[in-house]
Write a structure and sequence with these properties.
The protein has nine helices and three strands, in the order αααββααααααβ. By secondary structure, it is mainly alpha-helical.
Amino acid sequence: MKNLFKKPIFWVVVLLIAITALFLFSDGDRFFEERRTAVRVNSEVSNFKEFNSVAGQVQWELSMLGQEATKETVKDQATERLIYSMLLREYAKKKGVDATKEEIDREFAKAMEDYGIEDESEFIEQLNEYGIETREDFERLLALEIKMEKLAKELFEENEEMTETEAMHAVFLKLEELKEEADIDIIIQAEDVLLESDM
């Protein structure tokens, strides 16, 4: 597992986990609250459920860094991550880039192997520590990672002078550019953020 932390792809996965990890709530009032729009980027919307999952990941990261998780900080960081996730999905779709079921399954199996875990339920239990509740949640993250890598590979192949790292950076820069041009509506307010201490 120590080797896993040294791999750049691990940190990409951690970033993607932070962007899209989902928490599941079961009480009735929360069910309707979670479906309300939290963030809109162009025509794509992210609901409160997705926002709360990313907010939970942000809180976990802040606690690991020994920093206080205020509602405003969590709101700002979770919102930013959601926006980039939505822009990545939109950009990949526009470029005709997708992740196949086979690619996702292969990456899922590789991740289990990297963790040294053979049992899927044990693996998901391990991922729960990062806010990933189900295989489907993790597969959504893997799909984003695959799309990101394919977009970077496209750039790398188009420009022989560019390194793979520079190609990945170029994709991030493209997302920055798209963010500047995007029609973004942030509905979520700091008081809407559920901190772990509130639960």
